[in-house]
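Anyone? Bumping this.
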Amino acid sequence: MKRIICKNYDEVSLLGTDILAKQIKQNPKIKMVLATGSTPVGMYKKLVEMHKKNGLNFSGVRTFNLDEYYPIKKSNDQSYDFFMRDNLFSHINIKPENIHLPNGESADPEKECADYEKMLAQAGGVDIQVLGIGVNGHIGFNEPENELKLATHLTNLTKNTIEVNSRFFKNIKDVPTKALTMGMGTIMKAKSILLLISGENKAPVVKKLFSGVVTTDVPASFLNFHNDVTVILDERAASLL
Ligand code: PGA
């Protein structure tokens, strides 16, 4: 895995933006997997700026999101559907039909996951996958477990993830306990992967990621098997390396 250590969060966001913008210019019909959470917010803000000031063109770009809470209404301001519209999609010229997220409103989550996986396969694979990492080592909602699932699936969130994500909700009881997530195999199929990491709370998991050990206790450690991963992290996240 290629590792780039930046001074701070702003530089992580800037470098992530440069990489994505360059790829969009080179391949205007690029297929990207996008992530939510605090980490990519700065990058999305800068992509919006590049669209508004420099005309970065998203009209041919196709996006697929990594995960979504389940069940959740798209109108809920904590849904990832809402997050993506709020932070990126409403501010750029992406075509609505080119945006894909797992549907947290689906009455049949198993079918939703199977359909999502099929739709990704029919799209012919993605060019770049943006990822964050949880303090517990999760990617998407592939949580530390004895075994990891390959395909998109419905999963239970761990207590740790519910606690960590409760910062976005009024009450911890409001945090959904399940999610729809791309599986480890879905993630690993991307041609390239861009993992953004910031903050000293991530330093212990970053140490595990680069420890040379692959374990289902740290789902992100499987990224070591992919041959085109760029990890952009700030000095605080890299402080235990
Ligand atoms: P964060 O979440 O960017 O809000 O830290 C990352 C994740 O849980 O994957």
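Late reply, but here is one note on the structure posted above: The domain at 2-34+57-202 is CATH 3.40.50.1360 (Rossmann fold).
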